[in-house]
Structure prediction request, 443 residues.
Amino acid sequence: MTQLATEATEAALARIARHNARLHAFATVVPAHAREQARHLDALAALGTSPGPLYGRVVGIKDIIDVAGLPTGGGSRTRDGVAPAAADARVVRRLRAAGAVLVGKTHTVEFALGGWGTNVTIGTPRNPWDMTTARAPGGSSSGSGVAVAAGLVPLALGSDTGGSVRLPAAFCGIVGLKTTAGLLPLDGVLPLCPRLDTLGPMARTVADTAALFAAMLAEDAANLPGAAALAAPETLGAHGLAGRRIGVLEAPDVSLHPEVAAAFADTQRLLVALGAVLVPARLPRRPTEYVGAMNDLIGPAGYQHYAAQAEAEPNRLGAPIRARMLAGRAVPAHRLLAEQARQRADIAATAELFGSIDALLTPATAAPPPALADVDEDISPSVFTRWVNYLDLAAIVLPMARTAAGLPIGVQLIVPGLQEVRALEFAAALEAARGAFAWPDLA
Prediction:
């Protein structure tokens, strides 16, 4: 009998051992624990007991999520020496119950507060699409994106408060699902802005993303329309896109890199060829306006949770992270309350928009992953992602093209909250029409 879990685990551990020193994707690897999990799962299978739908699938866990026996580092030196977690986060317990093998914790931007994926205190994961020039991996789930893109593990968990699953998915050329706020449990997860924080699956394919998402849902699937379709993720997209109304967000205030613009136009033509109907769509505000609006929501919440770390002298936070936290301290209460009221109004207006379309299409990012030397920490790559959280929507990013230099380009499909299955269905149909996607060759 094939020892599926054992073999898959050994293959992942070997690839991590070979490449992680260069990629810096994993903060912690637990070979002995992973092998013990795999042997247990294979023993169950040998006895005729189903180990679960993720039997033998190896998963990396973002290091803001508790794994029993391991410290939750949060990507920050301010947590050096923190005690190991006493218990798994609830979503981690669900993955174990589904038969997944947890192989370690992946690197993150400090306290998940950054979109480029940079970490100046403990090191930035290396985007595997360019092993000559260091490029932004996207953040804050940077290690998870790199680990999946490089094939160290097939599946990984990320979190998304303003794009932190979707930005690394775009920059690393993988699939990332931003779930609806409140759908998945956040106990055992370091907070940033609990009203906006979400957990999300990351994988190379839509089917694998859906399988991981189903395991993360567990009993909460009862709250999700169409969740029964997740029982057979390989069949997602079979209904196609004929007749589906896809809104195309026109963003004249966002300048697209020429190759991103070309890929976005090609994606629209492909959707039309699949029978979709493209219609122009507008948000309540311009996309760029939501970047600042989200700062007014995330900043005060982040400061509330990590004021002690931000105010400490001498300070152990990276300078960009500390600056963002201290900026949150400066947001006055009247401005925060006004933004929350504006958010409620914009959510209502967006619900009207989705009364006439099935999904909204945008680029995932305005440009391909830049060289780290060119990253400006004072701006954000989240112009197409932040407002999805602000407006209480769900979204999926998938790779659709590569630049002449071989860098990935992603697109984003956005749906109403609690319509994750629709997003997965549409993405699967688009992925099938796109065809095979080559992966980085690390040799």
